[in-house]
Amino acid sequence: MIINLSSPHIHGGDSVRMTMISVILALMPAAIVSVYLFGWLAFLLITLCMVSCVATEYISLRMMGRPSSPIGDGSAALTGLLFALTLPAYIPWWMALLGSVVAIVLGKQLYGGLGYNLFNPALAARVILLISFPLNMTAWIIPMHVGTPVIDLYNFNDCLNLLLFGPEAIARTLDAITMASPLGHIKTEWSQGIAVADALKGYDYSYLDAFLGREAGSIGETSAVALLIGGVYLLARHTISWHIPFTYLATVLILAAIFNMIDPAHYAPPLFHLLAGGLILCAFFMATDPVSSPVTARGRIVFGIGCGVLTWSIRTYGGYPEGAMFAVILMNCAVPLIDHYCRPRVYGR
Amino acid sequence: MLHTLLKSTAEKSGLFHGGIEPEMSKITANSSISTSMIAPVYIVPIKQHIGEPCTPIVSVGEHIFRGQKIAKSEGYVSVPVHAPTSGKVVKIEEHAIPHPSGMGLPSIFIEPDGKDTRDESLEPIENYRERDPAELRERVRFCGIAGLGGAVFPTFIKLLKDQRNPIETVILNGIECEPYLTSDHRLMVEKPENIARGIDIIMHMVGAKRAIIAIEDNKPDAADAMRNAISSIPDMEHVEVHLLPTRYPQGSEKQLVQVLTGKEIPAGKLPMHIGVLCQNVGTTHAIFDAVIRGRPLTERIVTVSGDAVPRPGNMRTRLGTPMSFVFAQHGLEHFEGLHILHGGPMMGERLKAADVPVVKSTNGLLAMKSETMMKSHKVEQPCIRCGHCGVACPVNLVPNLLADQCRSEQFEKAESYNLFDCIECGACSYVCPSNIPLVHYFRYGKGQLAQISRAKGFAEASKERSEARDARIEREKEERAAKRKKVRATHKPKPADEKPAEERADEGKPTDEKSDSKGSES
Q1: Which residues of A touch B261 (CB under 8 A)?
Q2: Closest CB to A115 among B8, B100, B383
Q3: Distance between CA atoms of B461 and B448, rounded to whole angstroms?
């Protein structure tokens, strides 16, 4: 083979598999915290999504008559994990399964497999589910609840029954076991003319809870601290570069700070934006997905700023309470263009 | 955290962009230079430099001396070839040269007589500071010196004292950033005075005021040796030693100039355009040998290393020595299943067989067990656009996009993305998690583009030719018409005779016209 004759003849040893495994490792704190907060529900959901993503990938490759070796690169398992972490603790099992199939088939294999997808597969699946099943996708299980009034999250049988047969199977209604997320709450309250600060007071909102994760939300999105640990690990390992997470978060903070200063009654404070919803997960794990983000440093800065502006705008003016995933998906579309215009200055030119 | 952030920007002052830190494996760093035995036969290719090949000037059966010119240079970008030892020319025929394709070149086969008698006709020049730089430059050209770092560009061309581009700084490139290679390192440790004198000769030749000896910090002994040497020679106070952090590919001319001067060599220009001249350690030593000792280039230091070599070392080896003979002196006789590299593992060529000779570009000969080589025997995987290649690229290209363009044959687009600025250092391929042989794609793209531009040049030339012909035909037609008018004006016309000829001309069939015009011309 002629390729073997061409220099260089040594290799640094980095591999796609190691990259994927390192991201899965970086998500472990968030996954563990999610199980701590949402009990067996989170565990079952993560397992279900990861297994069905890998299985879907295998079946897709077989159907296309391609070698099934890419299964070993870990990208399908990572997609499954990422997707699960963006879900509410309770959604019917078949929705989670459907989402996993959508992520792999529509989000990835139809484009040509790993490396060719335009969108982040996990986010694409989440967006499709959100649009298709808005009720289930915005019903947030109250975290860390034990005992009969609501649901015992740490009882395996209860959780399995809920996942498989729905709230009726454990004699509950969806409303009884769920609540609004902070973002959803202030959006509803604001539409009724209640100022942000009052809305937060009414919600019993605490920054510490939001930082640690004790609030309603997607299982892997609530704990800022767990996500930050993983993000710093990825930065230190050079799996991701600082450009996207830094510019993304900074843009949201700056926009939020400016508008909060102008009109605190209508615009949520910057720290609230930072800790709310899927922002930190998106900034460190979704927007940095190498395949669907720009490849140059300048491009990544543009991309991060774009994500930030869109996230804040959708949260503030959009119909949905959370904008992070839409922002990233929209910016994914612009990546080829960004790459073209943000090439670095070549040596001597 | 902040440190990590800053580090990943890779834009630090006094450094070049990107680069990598491969395992250096300089296992021969402390091995003194040994001298190769006389080989049973020398195979001297007639071209060992970048440029025009030479013409043999000896005939089969002729007795020759060491250092005797045996092939003369043709054209400007060319340097002659000299006999590595005394003996008899046994044949002149094509033989494989160090090239991955296994291609061959006409080579002069010399059977040594064992006496190693030198051709002493070249006068040693001790008082070079009083000599005309042009004379010294001719000496360097005559002695066949080409860049021994591996590029083998004829050295005399760079040693021009040019008023338009005065050289301010001479840089001695002692970086040797390729893993395994230690030939320059050992030469600096063992012959620092000769190298220092070589620098002085170069400074005199180009009229430079200062010189920098650049050495990476994994060779502190070489830096000490060079510092001592320059302090022991009078009038060398404008020469300084710079110890630079080890980083591949710092030894690349463009990157080294950037690190030392903070200036970039503009695209398409040479270091001299920003007042800099770079010379390799081995080349500088060869210049010393040529001027001070009157000895043409017939030998060089070769690092013989790799994990398949029982006794790795550095060896003073004559040009033309069969590589198998060099390896044998280091305990390696069987090459089955091994990878033989000519040069370092980052930029060297993999050879098909070890029967090729050592040439001017042979800075290292490596024999590696196949399992230690490029873990990229693994299959190439799809690009995940991680961008590590762009971070590693010392010229700031976007390698993954370029490779994609070359693979999908969008060569013009690749050219507009500055494909030709790639220095083929291999840093991108080294870091690629998908094992994509990026440099391979770039070479392919460059080759294809060269072909396209040749074809384009040919098409344009023939278009020009055909346009010129059309113009000439038109002009001749007009001339003839004018002539006829004149004839008609003087003599009274005979319409019956003229008409058919005119009709034929109006049809304007080129072939007819051509034969007509030819007829009228002759």
Answers
A1: none
A2: B383
A3: 20
3-state secondary structure A245-280: HHHHHHHHHHHHHHHHHHCCCCCCCHHHHHHCCCHH
Express as a percent the part of chain B with pLDDT over 90. 72
Whether B1 and A232 lie within 8 Å, measured CB to CB = yes
For residues B422, B424, B426, B429, the Cα torsion angle rounded to the nearest 10 degrees is 60
> ipTM, 2 decimals?
0.89
Q: Which residue of A has its CA nearest to B425?
A: A8
Show the tokens assigned to B491: 């003599």
pLDDT tens, per residue, chain A with 349 residues? 344 568 898 888 889 999 999 999 999 999 999 999 998 999 999 999 999 999 999 999 999 988 887 888 899 999 999 999 999 999 999 999 999 999 999 999 999 999 999 999 999 999 999 999 998 898 888 887 654 455 778 888 888 888 888 887 777 777 777 888 888 888 888 888 888 888 888 888 889 988 998 888 999 999 999 999 999 999 999 999 999 999 999 999 999 999 999 998 889 999 999 999 899 999 999 999 999 999 999 999 999 999 999 999 999 998 888 899 999 999 999 999 999 999 999 999 8
Residues forming a β-bridge with B63: B88
Residue-wise DSSP of B8-20 = HH---TTS-S--B
Q: Where exactly does CATH 1.10.1060 map onto chain B?
A: 380-515
Angstroms from B20 CA to nearest CA on chain A: 9
Question: Which structure tokens are listed for A50?
Answer: 């990861």
Q: In this predicted model, what pLDDT tens digit does every residue of A22-69 receive, in sequence order?
A: 999 999 999 999 999 998 999 999 999 999 999 999 999 999 988 887
Q: Where in chain B is the domain with CATH 3.40.50.11540?
A: 132-295
Choose the closest CB to B8 out of A116, A238, A348.
A238
Nearest to B143 by CA among B116, B122, B173: B122
Fold of B380-515: Fumarate Reductase Iron-sulfur Protein; Chain B, domain 2 (1.10.1060)
Joined together, the tokens standing for residue A296 give 């140059």
Task: Report how far apart, in Å, the C-alpha atoms of A243 and of each of A246, A294, A299, A309, B404 are.
Answer: 6, 10, 9, 15, 24
* pTM tops 0.90: no
Pairing of strands B87-96, B63-64: antiparallel
Of B374, B394, B435, the CB nearest to A10: B374
The nearest CA of chain A is from the CA of B390 a distance in Å of 7
Class of domain B132-295: alpha beta
- Residue A238, min C-alpha distance to chain B (Å): 8
